[in-house]
Amino acid sequence: MEKLNITWCYPDILSLHGDRGNIMALKKVAEMLNIEVEINRIDNYDDLIDFKKTDILLFNPGELKTVPNIIEALKKQIDDLKEYVNKNKVLIVIGTTGAAFGKEIVKLDSTKIEGLGLLDMVTYERENILGDDLIIKLKDNDIELNGSQIQVIDTKLDSNIELAKVEYGYGNNGYENKLEGAKNNNLIFTNMLGPLFVKNPWYAELLIKKAMENKKVNIKEKISKESFEIEYKSLEAIKKYNEEK
Amino acid sequence: MKKLWFLIVLWSTKFGLVLCKIFKKNGTMIAGKVALKFQSDFIKYFKGINYDKVIFITGTNGKSTTNNIIVHTLKTAGKKVTTNLEGANLITGVATALIKDSTLTGKINSEFFVFETDERYLKRIYEAIPAKNICITNIQKDQVQRNGEPDYIYKKIKEVINKDVRIFVNNEEARAKSFEKFTDNVIYYSVARNDKSYEKTSFYDVTMPCPVCNSKIHFNYYNIDNVGDFKCSRCGFKSEKKPNYKISKIDYKNNEFICNNEKYSYVYSQPFFMYNYALAIAVCKEFNIKYSDIKEAFKTFKNIAGRLETIKYKTKEIKYIRMKQENPETLQSAFDYIAKDKSKKIFMLGLEQLEDFKPYYTNTFYSFDCNLDSLIDSNIEKYICFSKAVSYDTANRLIYAGVPKEKIVILPTDSNEAIFEELDKIDIDNIYLITWLHKYEELIRDVANLKEGE
């Protein structure tokens, strides 16, 4: 079977909340599906991404101050990046780093930074920080995910591109808004920390299968619910905690 | 009129402190809180504060301990010091310390003023007392629900660093060191590579962004997590080759080290303590405290804010290590401490739902910043993960580190009884416990109750 190639972008720079757990989880779940995995690190802004040898592109959360560097680095390969997204290939961006992929970032001092424009959204730096749990249902398939969020930006979507509906928590832009993340083909942006794929391995499974489908490899195998027993029990415990708190 | 009001507030709060003492109440914050409520600029009316001898100690980790070492050393040298030793590091704690040490006219006769200062309140404290000396221990991830990301705290500290301030910075902590660009008066303190230093070579290891240009920082080695000889891969920002004060030749067997050609004995040997000692030496030497006094003080220093305690439960000895769940460096230090004991043991890990501020939530993700390899290679027979909401996530972190599922007991409860029941099933007396301080205090209370009931 063909390998799954994961490109882990700027792991030292984008590492805020134990996020290397995401790459560990993607590898673990892929191996549970009997898929061989190759992970390629892009450590420096000057290193180029090999889009042809990438099936999943992962950007973990980083500090807001690194977002302009990420934009500058990716602009060097913007045509390849757009083609990658247009071809339905999987790109995951988590937390504040998501701001780089929107149209614009508005800082507290009113300065504006032009984003990569791959997501129809604008992000706004927040005055105060917000931390809470986050439980969502994916818009496409009602799959439930859970984690936490540490919000230093608010995100306003300019079209119906939300990734999920919020069941509990803050999401993109407030407790009332009930929208979480954004999506453009298989470019997925979420605020969810956890690490996301450690706590929701079923989502890792889904995205790995999409990545393999793009390579014309159909993975029929489904990982049993029992294999994710600890994660499902965690989901139930955390839902209960948030209901009762 | 304002001065008269100051005196009235001062006398009232001094009287309040006397009452606190009589009724054995902790008044470390309350007197200052009341004073500042009645007079917001209360602090500026104290007389006798020489700003050249005011020292603030700020940063994520090591504030309290370093503050305590410096104060102990200055006092050993016969100096009179005003300080907020009790860890009351907000402006209210500083105000209380001044109330305590002042005369009825608001005059303070101390030579030195040493204050541990919370990073987020540093500007407000500085506006009241413009210290000429600021020590920055490190800036790490901590209490993200309030602090968000390290850069948030960086900006808070930056607000008070200017050309009039002398800063003392950790030469091996990139964020702290980068404050050098805001003043010409910089004292670097350092710890050389030693027997407890290490390198990270795993594929999954990550470092941090450069505080100057946001590119990747490379560490030649680590003395503690994210602290070690470093260099930016892009802009060249790096540790100084010749810091002002450098601890070297650490002899962990005999508890001795050399700093700038002078030998010291010490009591506490954890790697992070070496930085506390280095900073204390730097500050004391810059204020002309004699080597013999510093040497003597280090021998007699007792850490009142200790993170290690022991509970006796039946035949078992439970060694408790305090940690901050939202601060991966303290969590890593706790894991590393246990890993040093290679005898057979039980490890209890009580990460919990976080209930410091509302909304409460269930962040356990900093455990993924930690490296657990040495811990799991240290002869742990069984792992017990407990807490109502996050015991499954805690167990999952151990599984990701390679612990077999059958070695892990998950107790999805906050009940202490369940923990004792589980311990009773195991025939090993060497137990290590990492959890929150309040949980440890509950366990001590319940152990005492069990003894009374016997």
Structure, explained:
The complex is a heterodimer of chains A (245) and B (454). Chain A is an alpha/beta fold and 245 residues long. Chain A has a single domain (4-244), classed as Class I glutamine amidotransferase (GATase) domain (Rossmann fold), CATH 3.40.50.880. Chain A is 27% helix and 30% strand. In chain A, the strands form two sheets. Chain A has a six-stranded mixed β-sheet with strand order 2-1-3-4-12-11, with helices on one face. In chain A, strands 5, 6, 7, 8, 9 and 10 form a six-stranded mixed β-sheet that branches. In chain A, helix 1 packs across helix 5. By secondary structure, chain B is of the alpha/beta class. Chain B has two domains: 2-300, 3-Layer(aba) Sandwich (UDP-N-acetylmuramoyl-L-alanine:D-glutamate ligase), CATH 3.40.1190; 308-453, Protein-Tyrosine Phosphatase, Chain A, CATH 3.90.190. Chain B has 15 helices and 17 strands. In chain B, helix 1 packs antiparallel against helix 2 (30-38) and helix 3 (63-76) packs across helix 10. Chain B is globular and about 70 Å long. Chain B starts with a helix and ends with a helix. The model of chain B has no long low-confidence stretch (mean pLDDT 93). At the A-B interface, helix 1, strand 7, strand 8 and helix 6 of A face helix 6, helix 7 and helix 13 of B.
- How many separate domains of chain A? 1
The helix tally of chain A amounts to 6
The CATH topology assignment of chain A is Rossmann fold
Overall shape of chain B: globular
- Give the class of chain A from helix and strand content and strand pairing: alpha/beta
Query: Mind telling me the C-alpha Rg of chain A?
Result: 17 Å
Largest interface: A-B, 49 and 47 residues
CATH level 1 class label of the largest domain in chain B:
Alpha Beta
User: What fraction strand of chain B?
Assistant: 15-25%
Succession of helices and strands of chain A: EHEEHHEEEEEEEEEHHH
- If classified by CATH, what would the architecture of chain A be? 3-Layer(aba) Sandwich
What's the N-to-C terminus distance of chain B?
Answer: 64 Å
Instruction: Quote the distance from N terminus to C terminus of chain A.
Output: 47 Å
CATH superfamily of chain A: Class I glutamine amidotransferase (GATase) domain
Number of domains of chain B: 2
Relative helix content of chain A: 25-40%
Widest β-sheet, arrangement of strands of chain B: 2-3-1-4-5-6-9-10-11
Helix content of chain B: 25-40%
What is the 3D shape of chain A?
globular
Largest sheet of chain B: 9 strands, mixed
